[in-house]
C-alpha cells in the first residue's frame, strides 16, 4: 500500500470520527429547548357564561412533578384555586372554588419543563357579564396638564416564580458547552491525523533505508 493510499485512508477515518462526534452535538441543540404550552381550558381570552369547576393546561412534553403551581386570580388578586395542583404526564389541572363571581380572571401558571428548567405564563378569561371599564373623564384642568409623552403603561403581570432570566442563562450555558465540546472534538481529530501522518512518514523512511543495497566491496580493493 502506497503512502498516498494510507494517507487517504487516515483522512477518511478521521472524517468519519468527526461526523460521529458532530451528530450528537447537533441533536443536543433542539433537545435543550423548553416545553411549550399547547392548549388550556379555558382557552386564552375565552368568555364563559358560568364559572368553570377546574382549569387545565396541556404541554408539549411531560412536565416534572416538582414545582408545578397554578393560580386563578381575580381583579382583587384573590386566588380561587382549591386544593393542590394535579399532574398527569403533560396535563396539569387545578380545581376551583365554587361560586366564583362574574368578572375577569387570570390563570397564572409555573411548571418545571422536562429539561429541568422552569417556565411560566398567563391565560386570561372572563366569567359572565364583565362591565366595560369607564372612559377617563378628561376635564378642562386635565386637558391643560402636560403629560409624559414618553411614558408607557406597564402590562407586566406577576406569575408565581421568575423563569425568564433562568431560561436565557440556561440557553447561554448550553450554547457554551456545545461550542466547547465541538472544539475539543475537532482538536482530538486533528491530533489523530497528525500522529497518523508522522507514523506513516517514519515508517516510509525506515522502509526506504532498509531497501538500500549493502556495500559488500572489500576494503582496499
What's the helical proportion of residues?
25-40%
CATH architecture of the largest domain: Sandwich
Total number of distinct structural domains: 2
Major beta sheet summary: 4 strands, antiparallel
From the 3D structure, determine the CATH topology of the largest domain.
Immunoglobulin-like
Q: Treating each run of at least 4 consecutive H or I residues as one helix, how many helices? A: 3
- End-to-end CA span: 41 Å
**Name of the CATH first level of the largest domain:** Mainly Beta
Number of strands: 8
Shape: rod-shaped
Average of per-residue pLDDT values: 74
Spans of 5+ residues with little confidence (pLDDT < 50)? 26-31, 143-158, 162-167
**Pairing-aware structural class of the strands and helices?**
alpha+beta
- Along the chain, the helix and strand elements come as HEEEEEEEEHH
What oligomeric arrangement do these chains adopt? single chain
**Main β-sheet, spatial strand arrangement:** 1-3-6-5
Gyration radius (Cα, Å) is 34 Å
Q: Which strand-content bin applies to the residues?
A: 15-25%
Describe this structure as you would to a colleague.
The protein has 3 helices and 8 strands. It is α+β, with helices and mostly antiparallel strands and 221 residues long. The chain has 2 domains: 3-30 and 175-205; 34-132 and 156-161, Immunoglobulin-like, CATH 2.60.40.1220. The strands form 2 sheets. It has a 4-stranded antiparallel sheet, with no helix packed on it. The radius of gyration is 34 Å and the shape is rod-shaped. The protein starts with a helix and ends in an 11-residue tail after the last helix.
Amino acid at each position: 500500500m502506497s503512502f498516498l493510499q494510507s494517507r487517504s485512508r487516515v483522512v477518511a477515518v478521521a472524517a468519519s470520527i468527526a461526523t460521529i462526534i458532530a451528530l450528537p452535538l447537533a441533536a443536543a441543540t433542539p433537545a435543550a429547548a423548553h416545553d411549550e404550552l399547547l392548549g388550556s381550558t379555558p382557552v386564552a381570552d375565552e368568555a364563559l357564561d358560568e364559572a368553570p369547576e377546574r382549569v387545565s393546561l396541556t404541554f408539549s412534553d411531560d412536565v416534572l412533578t416538582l414545582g408545578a403551581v397554578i393560580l386563578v386570580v381575580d381583579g382583587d388578586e384573590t386566588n380561587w384555586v382549591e386544593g393542590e395542583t394535579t399532574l398527569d404526564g403533560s396535563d396539569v389541572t387545578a380545581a376551583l372554588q365554587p361560586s366564583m363571581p362574574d368578572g375577569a380572571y387570570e390563570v397564572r401558571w409555573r411548571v418545571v419543563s422536562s429539561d429541568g428548567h422552569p417556565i411560566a405564563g398567563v391565560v386570561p378569561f372572563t366569567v359572565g357579564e364583565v362591565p366595560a371599564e369607564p372612559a377617563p373623564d378628561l376635564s378642562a384642568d386635565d386637558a391643560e396638564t402636560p403629560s409624559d409623552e414618553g411614558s408607557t403603561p406597564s402590562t407586566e403581570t406577576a406569575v408565581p416564580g421568575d423563569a425568564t432570566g433562568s431560561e436565557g442563562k440556561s440557553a447561554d450555558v448550553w450554547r457554551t458547552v456545545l461550542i466547547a465540546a465541538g472544539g475539543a472534538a475537532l482538536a482530538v481529530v486533528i491530533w489523530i491525523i497528525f500522529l497518523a501522518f508522522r507514523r506513516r512518514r517514519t515508517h516510509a523512511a525506515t522502509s526506504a533505508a532498509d531497501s538500500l543495497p549493502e556495500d559488500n566491496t572489500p576494503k582496499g580493493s
